[in-house]
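Quick check before the chapter quiz. The format below is the same one you will see on the exam, so make sure you can read both the input and the output lines.
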Amino acid sequence: MLFSTAQFFLFLGIVLVLFYTAPHALRRLILLAASYYFYMSWNVKFVLLLLTLTAIDYTAGLWISRTAPGRRKKLLLIGSLSANLGFLGFFKYYNFLADNLALLLGRPVHSFWLDIVLPLGISFHTFQSMSYVVDVYRDQQEPIKDPIDYALFIAFFPQLVAGPIVRAREFFGDFYHWRAPNGDEVLRGVMLVTLGLTKKLALADQFAKVSDAYFRNVAAQPGMLAAWSGTLAFGIQVFFDFSGYSDMAIGMAQLLGFHFPENFRRPYLAASVSEYWRRWHLTLSRWLRDYLYIPLGGSRRGAVRTYRNLMITMLLCGLWHGANWNFVLWGGHQGLLLAIERVFMKRFTLPPRAARLLYPLRWLMTMALILTGYAVFRAQSLHDSGYVLHQMFTGAPGPLVGHAWHWVLAATTLGIAWYEEKHGWFDKLPAAPAWAYASTIAALLVFLELIAVSDLQIPFVYFQF
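Here is the expected output.
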């Protein structure tokens, strides 16, 4: 059940009606049943995996909370994390490791291949569950006593498939002190769902057609402009696709009385790579910071270890995205950029006025660096990524991919993002006059009707991760 289908909106409408008409005591059971139905609509057999992981971490949280600090408590934590990473590793990385082992042994590539289907949302709900257990271990989270409550935290359907990665204290802060959303929150939730749907169908899917056509056979469209525009089309696609999903998830949660954290903050306005990561996929970035980068030592143990920790964190971030050397190389590229940037920031600090004046140049350089990473991320192989990068910097000019209206649309959305950054108009809409709010919703729906991709059913990009 894709978020962008009529079937899903029928499901959502039924859930909202049942939730708000049922007695308070039954509401969590309605949400849990709806969440498991949503999960099973993809693949029924994997519900056993979801139940198993939920039971392991629910039990581990209770045991860890009742165990005195020491070796036994640490072993309980290691056992829980090993179970999570073991399941994630098998389903997501077995074939990748098996193929590389076969190459090392001089065997055919698929000698040890297994026909494995990636369970829905495993990367996201695994990270969410692991963060809960670690927080209980650190005494930053009270253990959840009721297994139904914990199961709902893991399976809650708005963010089950692709986040945001919600911390237990955020979810249960709303759950245990639930209140019905007020008028402004309902309006904001409806606006987010509408905006997210528009981002997905009218923007992401349009640019997906352009980027897919280019990356399907990069050698068929040589040239510098083709390489840059094809990669830019993917960058636009992945942003509107993933931020559209996040908007819809946050909006649906808001309608149900839950407040999810922001996941995107206009990343394509960033004027440095570090600023880009402070704006892009915020819940993953803070997860990597709190549960990987800081435990590795963060920036507390000298420059060399700081750069090492950055590289390890970003390499694993790349690997988290998928079992593919392109993702690992992309992660290393991001880690290297962050490390180099940190070196320069220590030596050169621009005064505020100079930083503002140089913003266009800094922005352009940042976007160029991000796009070179996207070329590696999106290409179907290391060979293809090398070809695209070669064309970016040494190819003949050649033609742009896509149509002129694609790039007019891209520039328009960038201008809207810049205006939102300066004026914060979106957050003001729920409190604006009814005509302004209604006009915005109507404009989004008209835009959706005019250019939405209806002949294709393109899944959300992050469903594969």
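If your answer matched, good. Residues 271 and 362 are 5 Å apart (CA to CA).
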